[in-house]
């Protein structure tokens, strides 16, 4: 899968907000006091543990918003696997700017690389089953676009980006509508022909009821592996099947083996640990 970059116009507001939060009211007191204005420096972004890189565009943008004279030379682009000690990129330019933007740049890069890394690990765990790993809307407020990008960098795919992407009828919608049938029927009458409809089911009985109404996809929530196998057989290719709930790297292979099309995993974005990456100074 080709990893297309996110346009800078989408990235700039979140990077600018992060820099402003850090700069406060008086800017970088430490660097401005210690580092001569004309001093230039070369630094390297180095992986301190194995993982997958994501977020270099945000790191570069953080540096250049402080000073456009900063330059980055990338050795390991987003989506690359890196080993401990491997140089991801070199950064050179005005030393004050590099030091001022360092933490913001690393916050984005380490966080997104962490998401890409855990995604890659679970993608590898289900290899050979034809099952795709997808993220959810359980994202950090304001960072959804880049966190979902990081999932793609790790070899995963994206579920909805927001409430306006598609219709996903969940248990509370069903309860308030008075059942699966009225929920699906109302949804279908309210949207255009290009909008997909997915319905969440907890039991095989609910699945049978939903399939009678021909949804585009079914979300099989918290089902056992045996129930998932039966569900895939019941659907028979008439809809996309998506498993969710308590999926871990240990359980993912068995779930993928049931034949479901997608494994939906919220912790890829809401609980992934960072990938430890450092910015190290090098003498000119």
UniProtKB/TrEMBL annotation:
<keyword id="KW-0808">Transferase</keyword>
<comment type="function">
    <text>Involved in the catabolism of quinolinic acid (QA).</text>
</comment>
<comment type="subunit">
    <text>Hexamer formed by 3 homodimers.</text>
</comment>
<comment type="similarity">
    <text>Belongs to the NadC/ModD family.</text>
</comment>
<feature type="domain" description="Quinolinate phosphoribosyl transferase C-terminal">
    <location>
        <begin position="115"/>
        <end position="280"/>
    </location>
</feature>
<dbReference type="InterPro" id="IPR022412">
    <property type="entry name" value="Quinolinate_PRibosylTrfase_N"/>
</dbReference>
<dbReference type="InterPro" id="IPR036068">
    <property type="entry name" value="Nicotinate_pribotase-like_C"/>
</dbReference>
<dbReference type="Pfam" id="PF01729">
    <property type="entry name" value="QRPTase_C"/>
</dbReference>
<dbReference type="InterPro" id="IPR037128">
    <property type="entry name" value="Quinolinate_PRibosylTase_N_sf"/>
</dbReference>
<dbReference type="Pfam" id="PF02749">
    <property type="entry name" value="QRPTase_N"/>
</dbReference>
<dbReference type="GO" id="GO:0005737">
    <property type="term" value="C:cytoplasm"/>
</dbReference>
<dbReference type="InterPro" id="IPR027277">
    <property type="entry name" value="NadC/ModD"/>
</dbReference>
<dbReference type="GO" id="GO:0009435">
    <property type="term" value="P:NAD+ biosynthetic process"/>
</dbReference>
<dbReference type="InterPro" id="IPR004393">
    <property type="entry name" value="NadC"/>
</dbReference>
<keyword id="KW-0328">Glycosyltransferase</keyword>
<dbReference type="GO" id="GO:0004514">
    <property type="term" value="F:nicotinate-nucleotide diphosphorylase (carboxylating) activity"/>
</dbReference>
<dbReference type="InterPro" id="IPR013785">
    <property type="entry name" value="Aldolase_TIM"/>
</dbReference>
<feature type="domain" description="Quinolinate phosphoribosyl transferase N-terminal">
    <location>
        <begin position="28"/>
        <end position="113"/>
    </location>
</feature>
<protein>
    <recommendedName>
        <fullName>Probable nicotinate-nucleotide pyrophosphorylase [carboxylating]</fullName>
        <ecNumber>2.4.2.19</ecNumber>
    </recommendedName>
</protein>
<comment type="pathway">
    <text>Cofactor biosynthesis; NAD(+) biosynthesis; nicotinate D-ribonucleotide from quinolinate: step 1/1.</text>
</comment>
<keyword id="KW-0662">Pyridine nucleotide biosynthesis</keyword>
<dbReference type="InterPro" id="IPR002638">
    <property type="entry name" value="Quinolinate_PRibosylTrfase_C"/>
</dbReference>
<dbReference type="GO" id="GO:0034213">
    <property type="term" value="P:quinolinate catabolic process"/>
</dbReference>
